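Researcher: We're teaching a course module on how sequence relates to structure. For the next exercise, students receive a sequence and then see the predicted structure as tokens, so they can try to spot secondary structure elements on their own. Here is the exercise chain.
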Amino acid sequence: MKKAENSAYPCLKKLGLLSLVMLLSILIVIAPPPPPSNNGWSLPPGGRPPACALNPVPNISGSWKMVANVQYQFDLELQQNGRDFTGTMTLTNGQEPVDTVNGSVSPCAGLEFIRNRQGSFIQQYKGKVLGSGRDLHLQGNFTHNGAGQYPWSASKVYEINQSVTSKLDVNLTASESNLTAKVAKARSNLLKSPIRISPSIDIAHFVPYDTSNNTNL
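Model: And here is the predicted structure for the students to work with:
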């Protein structure tokens, strides 16, 4: 009897292992897949991307005037390619090396970038793209070597189109010339015009005056 039980034990053991493998396979098949990423950005609870995920990615290429931690002023130059961008930060109210930056911007107008000065510090900037048109600006906070939450902001710099200003100058000059010519013509016509006496004036009432004797004639 004991021999039969011992011979059946390996079969039961194999059957149990097989059942466990089948159960795990079923669980893997029916388990829901992980929520898709929002183009590399974390999704909110529930796995559904926000409505703004369908928006076009803001274009932040160009020149910016930046202020970090209230007192440090920078020229920020950015070149964007898709969602990613690179650029430089140049301190304008002091002397420091020019640092490179690289980061990305999301369709929901969030952005982050790293300023890494090798052997000295790493700063991580996070923020939002705010406004539109000529009121475009950036705003957020940054950490220095992983510590702190310091404010930063940047305003877009727009260059005046030289061709437009040249056309405006030409148009203004032409208008001034036309106005000057019209004034000169009007003055010339006024000087050439004969002085006429109004028909309503009665010539008989004019009494000749002798200037030599200061008496009326």
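Model: If you want an answer key for the exercise: The domain at 56-157 is CATH 2.40.128.120 (Lipocalin). DSSP finds two helices and ten strands in the chain.
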